[in-house]
Amino acid sequence: MSLIDRLLLRELRSILQMLSEEELQSNVSVASSSPTSNCISKGGGLKVHNYFGLSDSSSVESSTLSCGEDDKGTISLKATELTLGLPGSQSHARETKLDEKPFFPLLPSKDEICSSSHKNKRGFSDTVYTEKNWMFPEAVANQSVVKKEVTTNIPKGQLSTTNNSSSPPAAKAQIVGWPPVRSYRKNTLATTCKNSDEVDGKPGSGVLFVKVSMDGAPYLRKVDLRSYGNYGELSSALEKMFTTFTLGQCGSNGAAGKDMLSETKLKDLLNAKDYVLTYEDKDGDWMLVGDVPWEYKLKIMKGVDAIGLAAAPRRMEKSKIRA
Amino acid sequence: MNYFPDEVIEHIFDFIASHKDRNSISLVSKSWHKIERCSRKRVFIGNCYAINPERLIQRFPSLRSLTLKGKPHFADFNLVPHEWGGFVHPWIVALAKARVGLEELRLKRMVVSDESLELLSRSFSSFKSLVLVSCEGFTTDGLASVAANCRHLRELDLQENEIDDHRGQWLNCFPESSTALTSLNFSCLKGETNLAALERLVARSPNLESLKVNRAVPLDALTRLMSCAPQLVDLGVGSYENEPDQESFMKLMAAIKKCTELRSLSGFSEVAPLCLTAFYPICQNLTSLNLSYAAEIQGNHLISYFELQELRVFPSDLHDEEDNDTAVTEIGLVAISAGCPKLHSILYFCKQMTNAALITVAKNCPNFIRFRLCILEPNKPDHTTSQSLDEGFGAIVQACKGLRRLSVSGLLTDKVFLYIGMYAEQLEMLSIAFAGDTDKGMLYVLNGCKKMRKLEIRDSPFGNAALLADVDKYRTMRSLWMSSCEVTLGGCKRLARNAPWLNVEIINENENNDVMERNEEDEREKVDRLYLYRTVVGARKDAPPCVTIL
After folding, report:
1. Across B218-226, average pLDDT
2. Distance between CA A65 and CA A56 in Å, rounded?
3. Entry's InterPro entries (chain A) (predicted)?
4. What is the largest CA-CA distance in chain B?
5. pLDDT in tens, A156-188
């Protein structure tokens, strides 16, 4: 992130911090285990969503989400600005949410869908949770202010898939032959990414991969955002990916399978179909998928070229206890 | 003195398989030398330029199996020019001309052409086994001629080669009468294969133990293949992005369950999670698991593979600059070492490491034979103490008494090399990058590691003093690679003068070969890449312009 970006972001944060501190105080008192979902829109384009837990419901509440959509349509730009620029306030709200047991219904096919999930699934043993990890590029602040300027982060995402055989573009890794991964392997994986790139006739070629993980699943999935036209397509595709996985889990109860998932989570998977989407922005804050119009979302996502194994330290500890 | 007739001695020698031992036998006496060389069937040549084919055939007329290695290891990382060398064709020509009864050819990092493969397939009527690892220069047409003409082919193993896939029908070229196949690996081919031909081939090969298919073989085909080959020991699967439907999944599970001998799994590029879970029932028997192409598997689920002996963990994102939760760290390595006590070979890329973790790993797994750790950022210290990783690696070499291969990384001083020289008595291959402070580091290794065969160093401050300190050491080593170090042209010239039995190659891309005509001052110029190796046949004739042999 350039110096200017950093200053800008800092400015935005302090302004919005002041704004949000008063407004969010009231929202933060979330009732526990309330079966309803609330979508609270604040004036001034400041959108805060509070969600409450549904213990075993599989119903989908569309009414909640539609309010989000309307708002989104009219204040798209502003929502972009402020939502992106609200790292402090959102996480504040989220931290209190952590004590609750929220989970959110998903609308399988609606345009501009607004759904969210909770990141921290520990202790929520009776529901299915998904968390989608999105990578934010450094220049988040850039995007919030100037929508048309696609930053170099997207080309970097492309570069990482197309230029795998040559020196990587990242400043740190411009050493020839470093890291010592065989060019055969890099080429193969570049081919992998290219092969799964669906041509949609969209402007901006290349792939824009993000890692998507469902909590409780031992595998991340890699998703090419460019192959989806809107949130609806994305969420239905993700649903397909993970639902069959959960069915499969019920089916395969080999000894190794049991090792992979705890008993409680197996039960959870029976409540499939209820999951929500969030992404983690640069500041580690969990943002609602759907706040940002789809076109912007594509622009602000960092391309991730997932290669090889990725071990999350958090999960590492969990499984250490189990083993 | 020999009290036995030669035939008896020869029979005794038959029980001695290892190359090292047979080489030792041949030094005992003239008569043993003769008996040994005439009965020698398998020859391993670690550097194809150390000897030429004519001398090989002269010494070993009964040759049946030949292993050749060409380019230096760092060629894998684009440090060696493409046209450097390692051509197999002269070898095949010479062997064919001498009517050697060649049955097996194993090549690594060599340049192979379709013409060579065609000649090979026509010249050796008993040819049984072709293994090509990291080779290049040929197409599926070459494979077709091998399939068609080698009537007794048992093994066709293609590992990570760059093959031009003409999408022809090379699998069809196996004659219907060929039923002897024990190993088929075409995982590196990029194109579609003729599935019907493949299935027929597998069905008529009851001895098939190892099958590694490429990405283009779909799941249902794999299921059918496994069903007709439940005796498989080694399986490489393709790429299965899409979730299978329930029925396909059940069929896959059933087929897998029948493969009770399965010990080794690989492939899995772009694997859908469901497909991987289908393999769980047999995973506890696995001794080898290569998920290095699988993009989306989290490492923490490997730690329960008790039988696991070999593991490779590759970086999930080569261009990842930011910290992110999914980065591979020392925690994973420790967990793996705790959960897999039989682990003896590991290649592990990670973002960060600590001395404490390495010490723990050394305690948990003292059986390492190969330990390769690559911390992605050069010179990165222990992230908790900001110290160098000397102690961590020192613990590894001290505990792992059988360590034969080691790659070090992170912030390292001369001290780690002192440890290596002191403790790594069995070490044969050492890879150093961005490490060390002074020539002493390299000297510790050269003086201490008696069994050192291959030493490869890049971007480290070792210079002429270390290079020239003990020239005779290079007689006992296969090769030395130094790139972006402190050695100068003058130092290399001096070495070449003192050791005429060495080929001292200077690789300078983008330079003409007027190196020798420069004046004295250029002797102080640093050499970009140096590759030296012992040889009995002098300077090679096929070097490209960018390579100067001093």
Report:
1. 88
2. 19
3. AUX/IAA_dom (IPR033389), AUX_IAA (IPR003311), PB1-like (IPR053793)
4. 76
5. 333 333 333 333 444 444 678 888 888 766 666
CB atoms under 10 Å from CB of A120, counted, come to 15
Å from B370 to nearest chain A CA?
16
CA distance B252 to B278: 7
Pick the residue from chain B with its C-alpha nearest to A257: B280
Burial bucket for residue B422 (CB in 10 Å: 0-12, 13-18, 19+): middle
> Are B345 and B311 contacting, i.e. CB atoms less than 8 angstroms apart?
yes
Q: For residue A133, what are its two tokens?
A: 């990890």
Q: Which residues on B lie below 8 Å from A309 (Cβ)?
A: 291-292, 294, 297-299, 302, 313-314, 316, 328
Q: What's the rounded Cα separation, in Å, for the pair A45 and A71?
A: 8
Question: Where residue A67 falls among pLDDT bands split at 50, 70, 90?
Answer: very low
Q: What is the pTM of this model?
A: 0.65
The rounded distance, in Å, linking the Cα atoms of B276 and B249 is 11
Angstrom distance (rounded) from CA B294 to CA B269 = 4
Which tokens sit at B266? 């690989």
Q: Do B316 and A217 touch (CB under 8 A)?
A: no
Q: How far apart are CA B412 and CA B378, in angstroms?
A: 10
- Separation of alpha carbons B4 and B274, rounded Å: 64
- Encode B73-94 in three state secondary structure: HHHHHCCCCCCCCCECHHHHHH
Distance CA B93, CA A186 (A): 34
**Structural contact between residues A160 and A168, judged by C-beta atoms closer than 8 angstroms:** yes
pLDDT in tens, B325-371: 556 788 888 888 888 888 899 988 888 999 999 999 999 999 999 99
Distances (CA, A) of B501 to A147, B83, B477, B538: 67, 24, 12, 7
CA B225 to chain centre: 28
